[in-house]
Description:
Distance between the termini: 12 Å
Number of strands: 8
Structural class: alpha/beta
Bound molecules: adenosine-5'-diphosphate, zinc ion
Radius of gyration: 16 Å
CATH class of the domain at 2-27 and 74-119 and 166-212: Alpha Beta
Amino acid sequence: MKIIMLGAPGAGKGTQAKMLAAKYDIPHISTGDIFRANIKNGTELGAKAKEYMDKGLLVPDELVVDLIMDRFKADDCKNGYILDGFPRTIPQAEALDKALTAVGESIDYAINVEVPDENIVNRMSGRRACVGCGATYHIKYSPTKVEGKCDTCNGDLIIRDDDKPETVLNRLNVYHEQTQPLIDYYSGKGVMREVDGTVDMQLVFDSIVAILGE
Ligand code: ADP
Ligand code: ADP
Ligand code: ZN
């Protein structure tokens, strides 16, 4: 099964993708997580990506496309994957289609997690990320058992550089201009499905499972 998670920054794509990956036993591939790992490890790719990420801008398509095509070669992708944060532009979606078509495959579903802009800044300002394992929490909606420490690995929690309110507003604009057109793109292919992302995480999950099937 090949799934794409769509939605504004902070809509809950990562949260849902993690739960879905566990349920369907397919990898959760987050381009944002891959970039953040590269930044942490001081790679050349990380340095390039950081320039854009810190401003709330998208990393250039060619960097992202090469990276993801490489990721698909890994053994764990043979039964499918959940893409979180890719594609984010029409050229990225076209590159993905071309690569899949070449091997006789296609995307099964694109799931749009719908959350209005006015909820987003609130979501992002409370988001906390674990430096150890990348797990995401929210100070109000998904708190850790011990404040400031990851439930899974006991790593320290941080506020992402790009979750500052002014950067979040940039990211929302970028989302509307460059990523939202993908909703029409995947509607045209008959694979687009929408879920209400404003309700409790578990309820969002249930509605996605209702679409994908047990
Ligand atoms: P969020 O989940 O909050 O939307 P991500 O972790 O997906 O954030 O992405 C963080 C940043 O990484 C983006 O703002 C962008 O700069 C960069 N990025 C991630 N995926 C892509 C992509 N597919 N194309 C371009 N830039 C990307
Ligand atoms: P995205 O990957 O789309 O950027 P995340 O999954 O990181 O979004 O979620 C953004 C923030 O909102 C996180 O702090 C997360 O804990 C919280 N969150 C996710 N889903 C919900 C929900 N249904 N209700 C309330 N908060 C949520
Ligand atoms: Zn952790």
